[in-house]
Amino acid sequence: DGGITQSPKYLFRKEGQNVTLSCEQNLNHDAMYWYRQDPGQGLRLIYYSQIVNDFQKGDIAEGYSVSREKKESFPLTVTSAQKNPTAFYLCASSAQGNQPQHFGDGTRLSIL
Amino acid sequence: GESVGLHLPTLSVQEGDNSIINCAYSNSASDYFIWYKQESGKGPQFIIDIRSNMDKRQGQRVTVLLNKTVKHLSLQIAATQPGDSAVYFCAENRGSTLGRLYFGRGTQLTVWP
To answer: pLDDT tens digits for B48-91?
Structure first.
């Protein structure tokens, strides 16, 4: 089945540690997105990429980094500079332009 | 500031009734809107979208209405079922052609038997 796979489902981070969240899609979509969702809140955009080897900051990019070396993959690194990383992280992809974004089932990140 | 918002954070309906979830937007440049359904612990699921050249669009048991005059969007669910219980988000593009979406806080729909 075509879709978006996020892994791991649950992740724990120690103080001062960087962690990387995986996002893979086989929908042949050009655009990919990372969102953060806090309890009772909507989705806030962290980073997005419209094409391989290019990406743009979203509204809350500080403390995060991404890469887009392959069309299928858009990993997100939560760095130690992100002081409040506990949240539900969602990855999405879409065709170019104004098209529906399709989401993975998220990674829940917690602090040890 | 401009934002996508919702009139009600929670909505409770009886099984079999129709549900209406509302969304207000303030950016007049928005020309693309989407409704998503999110069940607990899962990612948002696409329900239906509408572009600004339309006032109404229908899917299976769902209808989206767009009133550009008052900048209002609604999602109507016919014959609501327990499986419809979830958080519903509207999202707008704020005129962007790059695929960026801006999400509201969401409405929790609870369906009672």
So the answer is: 999 999 999 999 999 999 999 999 999 999 999 999 999 999 99
Q: Say if residue B44 is exposed, middle or buried (CB neighbours under 10 Å; 0-12, 13-18, 19+).
A: buried
Query: What percentage of chain A reaches a pLDDT higher than 70?
Result: 98
State how far the Cα of B77 lies from the Cα of A108, in Å rounded to an integer.
Answer: 30
A-to-B residue pairs, Cβ atoms closer than 8 angstroms:
61
Q: What is the pLDDT of residues A69-82, one digit of tens each?
A: 999 999 999 998 88
- Alpha-carbon distances, residue A77 vs A27, A47, A70, A111 (angstroms): 23, 11, 16, 15
Shortest Cα distance, chain A CAs vs residue B74, angstroms: 17
Distance CA B46, CA B91 (A): 11
Query: Quick one: closest CA in A to B98, which residue?
Result: A97
A94 neighbourhood in chain B, CB within 8 Å: 99
Q: Long-range CB contacts (< 8 A, 24+ apart) of A48-55?
A: A48/B99, A48/B100, A49/A74, A50/A96, A50/B98, A50/B99
DSSP labels, A12-72: EE-TT--EEEEEEE-S--SEEEEEEE-TT--EEEEEEEEETTEEEE-SS-TTEEE--SBTT
Three-state SS for B84? helix
* pLDDT recorded at residue B61: 96
